[in-house]
Amino acid sequence: MYQNYLDYTDDVCMNLFTIGQIERVAEVLENSPRRASLLTSHGLSDPLPQLNDLSIRAILSPLDGECAANITPVIEVRNYGSNAVASAQISLTIDGNTIETKDFTLNPALDPLQITTLSFSSALFTNGLHTVTFEIVLVN
To answer: What pTM did the predictor assign?
Structure first.
């Protein structure tokens, strides 16, 4: 039963409980005074959707270990909100210094759950390690 969560093996194959384990958990939840509040917890409710919720899904460039001196930073963003996203302001920071804050106009607008890539101006990287961060500052 290597797929069993209680197998104590930390791998991607874990995906089930046995019927006996499910019954035991239900018994504890229904009868333990310390666990009673779990049955009415707000954690059981789906989160409320946000209207404007654009998130950085992946950094496509620069990649770890990339050695090129002149790099065009590229990110992949996804609209997790319920509104279409028509514009966004995103900042690029390298080693704690804001290099660029760019206003993007998304045409067509990014509908909920859609993904797109956004590119920044090329940046010159010197030899050595650098910390690159992106931050979504404003949506719509």
So the answer is: 0.68
